[in-house]
Design brief:
This protein is an alpha+beta fold. It is built from 3 helices and 7 strands; from the N terminus they run E-H-E-E-E-E-H-H-E-E. Strands 1-5-4-3-2 form a 5-stranded mixed β-sheet, with no helix packed on it. A two-stranded antiparallel ribbon has the order 6-7. Strand 4 and strand 5 form a beta hairpin.
Length: about 200
């Protein structure tokens, strides 16, 4: 992978820069130097100097190289651009290094139209949360937090339900209290047909 950057210059500077590169002339030198902040600097072409600023693109741009105009080989990922200010129409530098536009017209105002708006967060609150997370990861606790230890109550097991034993099966031919049937006699008396007979009865 190569280290590359995008250099965007005004149209007037672009014509002069194109002529120098196409003629391979050594009379006009090209130089680029940054200040101590690493974001601003000067672009020198011949005897002319231009203010430049290093900005961050909304998204990463891939660059490719070809030797036969058929096969493309990826060479780098570009995430920053050097913006040369136009001396005839100077623009006010942005407060943030994030560039709001992309490289193509379709990506105009890309950060506002295509990206989700960042929530408004208090910087002090964010730094406090970061410190609390660091303390927790180190084994400590967060600030302004009350720790209460609760003992888990033992669960009482339910008493087993006592089931009544199943009744024993009754052998066939044996009368019980439930299967006795009373039959009325001729004189109105009732007799129990329980299957038991007196051995001393008269025939």
């Amino acid at each position: 992978m190569e280290e590359q950057f995008v250099l965007r210059v005004p149209p007037s500077v672009a014509e002069k820069l194109h002529s120098i590169l196409s003629e391979n002339s050594d009379e006009d030198s090209i130089d680029l130097a940054f200040n101590g902040d690493g974001r601003t600097g000067k672009f020198t072409i011949g005897q002319d100097e231009y203010e430049v600023s290093l900005v961050d693109l909304p998204c990463v741009v891939e660059s490719y190289k070809t030797y036969d105009h058929s096969v493309l080989i990826k060479t780098a990922d570009i995430g920053q651009m050097i913006l040369v200010n136009d001396p005839e129409n100077p623009s006010k530098p942005d407060a943030t290094p994030e560039y709001k536009h992309g490289l193509t017209p379709a990506m105009k105002n890309a950060r506002k139209r295509r990206f989700r708006r960042q929530p408004d967060m208090d910087p002090e609150y964010v730094s406090k949360v970061e410190e609390d997370l660091t303390n927790i990861m180190a084994g400590g606790t967060a600030r302004d937090v009350d720790v209460e230890v609760l003992e888990q109550e033992e669960e009482v097991e339910d008493e087993p339900v006592q089931r009544k034993p199943a009744p024993e099966p009754v052998p066939a031919g044996v009368a019980t209290e439930k299967n006795k049937v009373s039959k009325p006699g001729a004189d109105g008396s009732s007799s129990s047909d329980d299957g038991d007979y007196d051995d001393d009865s008269d025939n």
